[in-house]
Amino acid sequence: MTRQPLFTGVIPPVVTPLTAEGDIDTASLERLVEFLLEGGVDGLFALGSSSETAYLTESQRTRALEVVVKANAGQVPVIAGCIETTTNRVIERANTTRDLGADAVVATAPFYTRTHPAEIERHFRQIAAAAELPVLAYDIPVCVHTKLAGDMLLRLAADGVLAGVKDSSGDDVAFRYLCLGAADLDFAVLTGHEVVVDGMLLGGADGVVPGLGNVDPHGYRRLVDAARAGDWAAARAEQDRLAQLFEIVFAAKDTSGTAAGLGGFKTALMLRGIIATNAVSSPMAALDEEQTAAVARILDRAGLR
Amino acid sequence: MTRQPLFTGVIPPVVTPLTAEGDIDTASLERLVEFLLEGGVDGLFALGSSSETAYLTESQRTRALEVVVKANAGQVPVIAGCIETTTNRVIERANTTRDLGADAVVATAPFYTRTHPAEIERHFRQIAAAAELPVLAYDIPVCVHTKLAGDMLLRLAADGVLAGVKDSSGDDVAFRYLCLGAADLDFAVLTGHEVVVDGMLLGGADGVVPGLGNVDPHGYRRLVDAARAGDWAAARAEQDRLAQLFEIVFAAKDTSGTAAGLGGFKTALMLRGIIATNAVSSPMAALDEEQTAAVARILDRAGLR
Amino acid sequence: MTRQPLFTGVIPPVVTPLTAEGDIDTASLERLVEFLLEGGVDGLFALGSSSETAYLTESQRTRALEVVVKANAGQVPVIAGCIETTTNRVIERANTTRDLGADAVVATAPFYTRTHPAEIERHFRQIAAAAELPVLAYDIPVCVHTKLAGDMLLRLAADGVLAGVKDSSGDDVAFRYLCLGAADLDFAVLTGHEVVVDGMLLGGADGVVPGLGNVDPHGYRRLVDAARAGDWAAARAEQDRLAQLFEIVFAAKDTSGTAAGLGGFKTALMLRGIIATNAVSSPMAALDEEQTAAVARILDRAGLR
Amino acid sequence: MTRQPLFTGVIPPVVTPLTAEGDIDTASLERLVEFLLEGGVDGLFALGSSSETAYLTESQRTRALEVVVKANAGQVPVIAGCIETTTNRVIERANTTRDLGADAVVATAPFYTRTHPAEIERHFRQIAAAAELPVLAYDIPVCVHTKLAGDMLLRLAADGVLAGVKDSSGDDVAFRYLCLGAADLDFAVLTGHEVVVDGMLLGGADGVVPGLGNVDPHGYRRLVDAARAGDWAAARAEQDRLAQLFEIVFAAKDTSGTAAGLGGFKTALMLRGIIATNAVSSPMAALDEEQTAAVARILDRAGLR
């Protein structure tokens, strides 16, 4: 029997372009979705961390997801983050997400509040019972300060509660055991670590959710295709190239990792002509002229301008 | 010149009673507010961590605050948490809070997302510029995983951005420097550490935001009054008694600190006849029969049943 | 029945003066011990964190302890750190410590290696069984990355394993429960937090181990005496003065907390004429001329030059 | 130009067998070294974390290293941990290490004490200046609670200070950048993550320091050989097999990660007949009968008994 996880391949977290006034820039967002689809992505992850979901108001979240769903027009699955502190809030957001036409919801462990393994398991079971859409777990300790236990994830997978996981934990050992444990399950094991995708695919990952995939979807397409073809030398070479491109996230210094990373992606997309501004949400600051020039040099080196 | 911080004394974070179905139990909440006012509190803190604010939907938050404001009927100041991940979301909630009649808003550092000192300072300045109400900072690293820097707080106090801080950081050294630094400022330095209030008041704190104050407001009233009268032996004796009462938060084992602490407070309030159930929000579990009996024994020992 | 813990009052961790070449400066160390005794301290804590014990070779540790014991000449108890990664290493060091004439040994939880509550408890039991001296636990999570559980400490106290604890955990809630739990035990509850001693004594602490006590032992003597006399206003005023003096540890920027804190103490002692240099161990750097001038200003403000 | 790092391939951290009384079991240690050499390892890492170095007294450390050097008889390089809190202590130990005939020393960032990037860099420069042997950095935040910065490591590599790094940080992104940065340097980039070696080698690692390599050196030999031959499917299959074998470290529950991991390795070696007991150092407890049976079943499944 062959595994058939629902979500595989390249599924970038779609950044949310903003106008200088801080509104959703819908024209830029439409262009970005077209660019990603043209680049051959297998899915779109809206309202994730890289989409500034923690910075958007409810109405902005709704607007951003509407635009992504409409621009995608059913070409690939759209999975949507429901990044809320606790269960009932996630469920409320999941209902809106379904109404807006997304194909799956993505939820983290409870955050802000202190939590417990038994509570986390109940959390996912209650969300899945209410959501009427496939649910993916988002394992992102840097944001929620809890690591999702591998045995819990596999138990929830076997019980049909979870359709997959986006792993941004950086725990490569746990990730390997997830891949081994999911070998007989239709459970998508996706890595969020965009600079080690070759090794993760070698170890059994089903796909990748690369923030950098906004900037160079074609590169990740080639990387995944090479891996699927068993051409690991080509996969590694592509990954090495992408790792050098990823240095755009280090252009901004003395700011938050979010502002530097997300700001670097947006600046690169602006320089590539896909989106109109590199504006980011309050209280973050956009990359300045000098930092933008640094991003431009990295794009030039990569042949992307 | 005498300091005149806006908020001083005993300001309990009002727990949010729920029905067995998970709705706001408005009758119980009204009774609780009356009980606290009768107990002599100096203010009410709605929608804080102990109010389960991270577990309530937007409409539940609004309802809970409405009930508190109405039941209080202007007797003491009502300060209200706007616990949101980032700036624009806090501002949106602050506007609702003002419309509902609260007297001040309480905001944390950005959370979920990674942040940076310069972003945190901008965050508070932008909130204060938009809020049309006094703003208190909520320093709670256990929830947001960032400690607010003392020099930033004092700078924002001197600039009229912040009216005070609720310190739940547990950093007693930083707290002492806050007290020293606020000696010439109308800036309320409030501790959230309910079992060391005597020492904090001795060191210069303006007041306390005690979760346990839901259960025994009269005790905190006596403690603060003794300290103000310079009767430190009496203050210590009252604090020792309250520290033993606080053991209700250890009745539940093998659960989250939130479920144990908040669940302990709610169970005690139920046993004292103030609220109808000890229900807590998903994914937490309420204290069971055995744990409830343990809480009852502690109340008995304290003469509170 | 009155408690009679073995170690109470002011017990400074004795810094270890070094020559410019990095050797133990025995003449300076002798002068420091005399200065502390003249200042009225109740005990001396040698080879603690503030003594640079983690930086000294075995022979340097031995030499430093020899000098302290000899200069003290039995006037007050000398307690000595045996700061080693695990049980057998602590025991080996404890044997040397006893041979050198110390009156008690101080040990932390295991560090460097990952550990477990059951292992920590065995660790202290085995040390106490082998040490032939009273054993104090050193609760210092910032160094060993484990918090000692209060119930374990009280169990070990009741079993006669531990004679006391130096608490540098900063967990003021746990500390209060230790004080409450030790109310019927001859177990010394000592705080390492030198800027909140008034509040800690009010809450029941038996004494303090203040790094800053190297610089101003007379101040801590007055603080403890005022507290014992029930003059809490005087205790607070003295503590506020000492908290301002403690700012010498912030004179060095962009360095480790250890280098800034310890370097600040040594610089102040040099400026007060007690020790010859402000040299610190590799890889730390001593305070430079400008930082030394900042320390001098703080000493002047405090009337200590 | 071809890179020629000094240390590559399979370099297991040699566990230190103990007698039931806690002494070094030299006969078992000799058998273990022979077993590893027969298994085709490229080097031996003595006195690392898996060697219980944090648990051994100075004389035990010396004895263990003597036995490894003698049993190895120059067949492969012996690198030896000098796991000490700070610079002078590492240097003192490095001198002993050189006298005992080791080929390189391995040192971590300072631990126990709080440290700083500038201090860490000075630390390694001073060690290298004094050591008279090649120095490898050991990046192990789980033990020392500091991550070594990649740019610092590459700067020290370029300056000839460091001959390599053993990376047990679990930061796969930083590891990839190390591999990219070392592409023109004779700097050995070794991973300590034994269950993801295939992916790490694909990404450019020079070798692996696998604790599990004590139990199955032949497996790691095959894995590295397959990778070098470009047969990534074979490398992955071998790694998957080894990942399942690694489950021996989960046989002990409710104990420290060190006791479970190290105890699992020792128990497997005892069951394979290489060493005499599965004794571990105080305060750890050895695996009991039931846990030993669990390890035996895993060995059976892997065909190693």
The name of the CATH architecture of chain A is Alpha-Beta Barrel
Reported for the largest beta sheet of chain A, the result is: 8 strands, parallel
Helix content of chain A: 40-55%
Name the CATH homologous superfamily of chain A: Aldolase class I
Question: Which word captures the global form of chain A?
Answer: globular
- Cα radius of gyration of chain A in angstroms: 18 Å
Assigned CATH class of chain A: Alpha Beta
Low-pLDDT segments of chain A: none
List the chains of the largest interface with their residue counts: A-B, 42 and 42 residues
| CATH fold-level assignment of chain A | TIM Barrel
Total domains of chain A, how many?
Answer: 1
- SS strand fraction of chain A: 5-15%
Count, helices of chain A: 12
From the structure provided, what is the oligomeric state, counting identical versus distinct chains?
Answer: homotetramer
* Average pLDDT metric of chain A: 97
Describe what you observe in this structure:
Four copies of one chain form a homotetramer. The first copy, chain A, is globular and about 50 Å long. The first copy, chain A, is built from twelve helices and eight strands. Chain A has a single domain, classed as TIM Barrel. The model of chain A has no long low-confidence stretch (mean pLDDT 97). An eight-stranded parallel β-sheet of chain A has the order 1-8-7-6-5-4-3-2. In chain A, helix 3 runs parallel beside helix 4 (117-131). Chain A has helices at residues 26-38, 58-72, 87-99, 117-131, 141-144, 150-158, 172-181, 197-202, 217-228, 232-245, 257-271, 289-301, and strands at 9-10, 44-46, 78-81, 104-107, 135-139, 164-167, 188-191, 207-208. With 305 residues, the first copy, chain A, is an alpha/beta fold. In chain A, strand 4, helix 4 and strand 5 form a beta-alpha-beta unit. In chain A, 63% of the residues are buried. Chain A binds chain B through residues 22, 49, 54-58, 83, 85-89, 92, 110-116, 118-120, 122-123, 126, 142-145, 254-259, 281-285, and chain B through 22, 49, 54-58, 83, 85-89, 92, 110-116, 118-120, 122-123, 126, 142-145, 254-259, 281-285.
